[in-house]
Amino acid sequence: MESTRPIRALVRGLDALTVLNLRDGATVSEVAHEIRLPRTTVYRILETLCDAGFVFRDTADERYRLTIQVRALSVGFDDEAWVTQIAKPLLEELCRDIVWPICVATLSGTTMLMRACTDHLSPLATERCSAGFRVPLLTSASGRAYLANSPVSQRDSIIEILARSNKEEDRPARARADLVRALADIKALGYATTTRTRRLVEEVSLGVPVMLDDRVLASLTVRFASSAVPLKTALERFLPRLRQCAARIGTLFLEQKAEA
Questions:
Q1: Which end of the chain is more exposed for a tag (fewer CB within 10 A), N or C?
Q2: What distance in Å separates the CA atoms of residue 68 and residue 91, rounded to the nearest whole number?
Q3: SS3 state of residue 39
């Protein structure tokens, strides 16, 4: 079957929506800087989105903002219910078992948004995070686990957006072939890891996807100090529990949707 080429105008429109989703409004110049397109092109994109009802131009400050119609794209998906009713209790149960802090994160624009975490319950949290904290998509275990298990069309669109970003954490998207190979390895392994230094401690993040049949809902991640738990030990002790918890979240989510 012949592959189809992406519609560049549509991708650019999604780029603009992503920028607006991450800000409390943005000017034409700000959007143009973020997605690296001429101002005249961005102006046409934003005005088209205004005509479609997804964006409006606030005459008070000349900034473009999303409209309530954007929420209609997710009608039928009760985002808060599964986090509060399903994910949080399971995360807290898992934290009592392994002690190290755990979080569940979902895709938000081109970052991963922590929806729930157990830092407040873990005495081992190096730096305490809370719900609402964002981490980069390409340099976090949660982001890599999510992207590696996303449909190819979604993955490629996100990579194309990130490749035009000026942010340092998005740099891996510019080496597309290397990134795609790395994501394929992560998908084959079933988990992603990243390491960074926090308060003179080398902190490792181990993330797995929360799957709904053939699509990814979120990522589940545990953070631990490498000096206390070597990676090999973490894979033996934490990975099976993470996978069990992720599978349980996915199962309960589908059951909740079926009952709705």
A1: N
A2: 31
A3: helix
Alpha-carbon span 157 to 99, nearest angstrom: 37
> What are the residues facing 112 on neighbouring strands?
107, 135
Taken as a whole, the chain contains a residue count of 260
* E strand or H helix that includes residue 64: strand 63-66
pTM comes to: 0.71
Sign of the Cα pseudo-torsion (79, 81, 82, 88, in order): positive
- Of 14, 40, 11, 15, the residue nearest 28 (C-alpha): 40
| Helix residue spans in the chain (DSSP H) | 8-22, 28-35, 39-52, 79-82, 88-98, 141-148, 152-163, 176-189, 231-237, 239-259
How much is the average pLDDT of 153-161? Answer: 89
Report percent pLDDT > 90 for the chain. Answer: 52
Task: Judge contact between 16 and 27, C-beta under 8 A.
Answer: no
> 143: pLDDT confidence band, cut at 50, 70 and 90?
very high
Among 150, 139, 142, which residue's Cα sits nearest to residue 172? 139
Does residue 60 surpass a pLDDT of 70? no
